[in-house]
Structure formats: structure tokens, C-alpha cells
Amino acid sequence: MKDKKTIILAVVLLLLVGVYIYYNQTVQKQRRPTGAAVDSAQIDPDFQLKAKIGKAIRIYLQENGDAPRSFDKLQGKYLDAKTYKQALERNVQYSYVGNKAYRFSMPSKRGPVKVAEGPGTQPKPGAATSSSGSASETPPSELATTETGWKYDPTGKTDPFKSFILAAAAQEEIAPKVVRRQLTPLQKMPLSEIEAGLKAIIWGQLGSKALVEDATGKGYVVQEGTYVGQHDGIVKKIYEDRIIVEEYRRDPGKGHLEASEVVLKLKKVEAEE
């Protein structure tokens, strides 16, 4: 009885091992890649040439700290004579954008783009077909289909292949830097408050100065050239009893800033009897 059970158990184990081996081989066959290798030259005939040019530009940038100003700078050290001649024959377009920024392109060899009208549509008799080996070149400013005659004009449109990050960096290099100074407490006060807080005017050999207190009682020394007020005012002159401030306000009618002088008078202190 025990031998019979042992035989049955061995047969079951053998069946399980056989099922596992069969399933494992099936899964391995499904995981094997079945697609053929893609030749980059079939997609873009100039792929190798563009790769060499791009590598030469990157090496030039690393050694010189900036992109080449013209394509001629790559001749010799960075591009051999054969590659340089091929690039000229393919009418390579190179432009220096700005600091460490460049752009180069090459007219396509693929010819006009053909758009199918629907599933199962056959090409019309005499219609041109697209081929990667075609010698005809389509101008970059005019792409047309062979059946509809549709035409694309990139004039005035954004180039989708141009990096907006590099363009912004180049624009930042050209744009002037605007430095805004930090406002002082006197520039945050209206002139009426400065006039109310004008406590004294001091004359001396080093020039005239005035003492202004804010609403909290904190004092500030004012002299000629001090910025005051909320309209870019500047102290032009200090007299014994007044301060002349020149400020700029926008004229609604003329649409630009107009300079005007404001007089801040020192209040007289009456002597106690």
C-alpha cells in the first residue's frame, strides 16, 4: 500500500515539473524581441553627419567656454576636411545665438510629405512618393503635400525646434539690468507728514541740515540730495526756514512724468512769556 502511494506521488511531481518547464519555455519565447533592428540612416540620411557636427560644437564649447561664432571655426581641429566638405555640400545652416547658445540645421533629403486620404487608399497615378534616398530637396520655408497642395509657411511663427530656454538666456544677456534701491523710511512718508515732523534746520560750515521726526518720535537727518516722499522726491535746497523738494508726478494729459517743486516750511516756535 505504501509503495502504491509513493508511486502516485512521484507521478504527480513529475507532471508538475513538466508543466512548469513547458510554461517557463513558453514565457521565454514570448519575451524574445521579434522586431528588426532600425537603421538610423533610413530615418535620417544625414544622421551621422549631424552627430559629428554636434559633437564638434560641444567639444569647441568645452575648450573655449563659448559656442563658435561661425561654422568656419570648426574646420581643421574639430571637423576633418571630408566632414567639413560634406557639411558645406549639404548646405548646413549654423547661427550663433548668444552666450553658449547656438543653432544649426540641415535641409531634409526626404522630399515632400505625402498624406494618405484614408484606409486602403492607393496613390494616384503619377503622384510622387516619399523616399529617404530621393535627391530632391524641399525648401525649409515651404512644405507641401503631393495630393492636397497644402502649403506651410513658417514666417512669423515660433520655431518648435528652437530651445526657448536658450532664447530666454540670450535675451537676458542683452536686456539691461534694472537695479532698484531699497526705500528708506523717509521715502515711505508723504511730504505732508515730513513737513509736520520738521523740527529744526541747522546751518554750519559743512552745509545745512534738517531734523525730521516721524509719528513714533524717531528722528532723521535730512540734507541736500536726500530722497524723501512717495513720488521720488529729492531735497534740492535747504534754507533757514524751509526745504525745497523736487518730486516727479505723472501728468494724465501728457502721459509722462513732470517735475514739480514742493516747499516744506519750518513752523515757528513761539517763545513762552
Give structural notes.
The structure is a single chain. The protein is of the alpha+beta class. It has 2 domains: 45-117 and 128-179, no CATH class; 185-265, SH3 type barrels (Roll). The chain contains 6 helices and 11 strands.
Task: List segments where confidence is low: pLDDT < 50 over at least 5 consecutive residues.
Answer: 111-146
Overall 3D shape: elongated
Rg estimate, integer Å = 41 Å
Helix count, DSSP H or I runs of 4 or more residues: 6
Strand content: 15-25%
Described by its quaternary structure, the protein is single chain
N- and C-termini, Cα separation: 138 Å
Average of per-residue pLDDT values: 75
What's the number of structural domains?
A: 2
- Number of distinct beta strands: 11
- SSE string, helices as H and strands as E: HHHHEEEEHHEEEEEEE
Sheet with most strands:
4 strands, antiparallel
Bin the helical content: 25-40%
Q: How would you classify the helix and strand content by structural class?
A: alpha+beta
Give a quick rundown of the structure:
By secondary structure, the chain is an alpha+beta fold.
Give the secondary structure arrangement, pairings included:
Blueprint: H1 2-31, H2 40-43, H3 47-64, H4 81-89, E1 93-98, E2 101-105, E3 143-144, E4 151-152, H5 164-174, H6 191-196, E5 198-202, E6 209-213, E7 219-222, E8 227-228, E9 233-238, E10 242-250, E11 257-265
Antiparallel strand pairs: 1-2, 3-4, 5-6, 6-7, 8-9, 9-10, 10-11
